[in-house]
């Protein structure tokens, strides 16, 4: 039976040096869900493919066009922007055929709860998303969202939210999530954020900073200044913290950054090369890989700091570690068989077994939030693929020149990764759904790598 050696050094949690932190980003405001009345649980008339489902999304109405910090032109203009964001969300997931507000008539405020069915039945729209936006006296916004079945002339679902002006896009994402979940039965994912590594400078001297943004690329913020290299960020399960690897004075350190306070904690500081820190599902532990005496193994350390425990101990290079959602298993990569392959082990390091036998090399495995699939990089062709936790059902999703480092959307339906362009070496973030048919590039102000998709915001 394998014995697990505790490291001789201690990883003590302490306040981190703040010289590489920029100004803290504004924390996500509180979104208050309001009672819009009892939503209806009725059947949907549409029986075709979701990819052909037409959804009309006109501008959100307002009871009076009032000034708001969210839009200097008033709530009427903001209603148009809300509908545009919802349209973009539903279009980019690849499942629907939405038509946005710029090509549609604008409903009046009383029509939000009593649609003019004749207007919409002739527009190839099986579904209708209508809503409103109102400015309150305290400057907060009330946003309501309604989904209707045009053929049945029925309301399917409704919900409303109270948001700060700075968070108006979150209300739009939540409306898109409401529509998506009602029509597909899937969990939402639009109201979430993404962390990644922002890259600038020449290829042989890259400056790598930690950055975050909304799931659609909006509200971009840099977290670190770039004076120290940042790598492999990961959100904590409760979304409140970001963990990342940083090289300060050439030495690897694992930091945990508190998104709410803008402060960070040094969890681990090692003299040996350290790679790929990952959270446990309960947020209590961190996995990482470290090279000691020419052998790279996987270790576990408490998220608050303390002594590390070695989980693998074989000749070769064991890297990474992604927990199954229930925390009972870990998938990782290793070259112990002579080539880079993916393995699964129990959370305590026992029962290690290879799962990749598709004829190529397997790297950067990441367990789906649903637990039913593992995304990975085919390191032979540098494409993104998925397989079951037993290694069956291997499918290739991308065909780029150099695609790597997959990360899952919170609902386990979309995968994000980064792609390196041939020749130029420039990097960017991309998303692809599980069919492999719907791929898009996310907008970032600079080159981007190492994405990490965070949980749904509350």
List keywords for this structure.
mainly beta; Rossmann fold; Neuraminidase; six-stranded mixed beta sheet; five-stranded antiparallel beta sheet; 3 helices; globular
Explain what this protein looks like in three dimensions.
With 458 residues, this protein is mainly beta. It has two domains: 32-36 and 45-184, Rossmann fold (3-Layer(aba) Sandwich), CATH 3.40.50.10070; 192-456, Neuraminidase (6 Propeller). Helix content is 9%, strand content 42%. The strands form seven sheets. The protein has a six-stranded mixed sheet, with helices on one face. It has a five-stranded antiparallel sheet with strand order 1-19-18-17-16, with no helix packed on it. β25 and β26 form a beta hairpin. Residues 1-18 form the signal peptide.
Helical content band: under 10%
Distance between the termini: 44 Å
Q: Give the overall pLDDT as a whole number.
A: 87
Number of domains: 2
Annotated CATH topology of the largest domain: Neuraminidase
Radius of gyration, rounded?
24 Å
Structural class: mainly beta
Q: Would you state the CATH class of the largest domain? A: Mainly Beta
Shape: globular
In the predicted model, the low-confidence regions spanning at least 5 consecutive residues are 1-19, 23-27, 37-42
| Order of the strands making up the biggest sheet | 3-8-7-6-4-5
CATH superfamily of the largest domain: TolB, C-terminal domain
Main sheet: strands, sense, barrel: 6 strands, mixed
Q: What CATH architecture of the largest domain do you see? A: 6 Propeller
Estimated share of beta-strand residues: 35-45%
DSSP summary: helix tally: 3
Tell me the total number of β-strands.
Answer: 32
